[in-house]
């Protein structure tokens, strides 16, 4: 990962291009036990031979706003992998040509064990995203209970 932390993380007005990962972490960002805000960011022409682009796990909050991911391929996960995060807010997010070759969620893979998960996705677009052998071409949600409005 270019950024790996367990502290609060703010990524604002940043561009990430041609990042190539080869680990079970996010190619660009991996966080755990933190709060993460990503705003006005662009991730373009990236790949990870084993995992995702952005991986947030065991954390309090993820805010993803006014952000674009263009042309990402990951093996076991898609562009954004969210695992056991208390509150997730995704607004004005664009995901174009994002794929997972062996995992779930071409654009977003969301897993939680919370009884009342807080996942909000608004004004977002997923175009030409998919999985080769998994589930959830655009979005994969693994949860004991979830309400979609």
Automatic annotation (TrEMBL):
Residue ranges annotated for the Right handed beta helix domain, each copy included: 6-145
Domain of life: Eukaryota
Pfam families membership: Beta_helix (PF13229)
Residue ranges of coiled coil: none
Protein known as: Right handed beta helix domain-containing protein
């Amino acid at each position: 990962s270019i950024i790996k932390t367990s502290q609060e993380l703010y990524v604002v007005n940043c561009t990430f291009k041609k990042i190539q990962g080869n680990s079970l972490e996010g190619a660009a960002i991996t966080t755990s036990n933190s709060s993460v805000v990503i705003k006005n960011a662009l991730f373009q022409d990236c790949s990870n031979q084993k995992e995702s682009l952005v991986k947030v796990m065991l954390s309090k909050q993820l805010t993803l706003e006014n952000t674009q991911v263009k042309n990402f391929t990951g093996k076991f996960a898609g562009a954004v992998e969210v695992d056991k995060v208390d509150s997730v807010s995704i607004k004005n997010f664009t995901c174009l040509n994002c794929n997972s070759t062996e995992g779930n969620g071409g654009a977003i893979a969301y897993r939680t064990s919370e009884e009342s998960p807080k996942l909000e996705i608004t004004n977002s677009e997923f175009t030409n995203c998919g999985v080769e052998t998994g589930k959830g071409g655009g979005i994969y949600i693994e949860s004991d209970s979830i309400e979609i409005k």
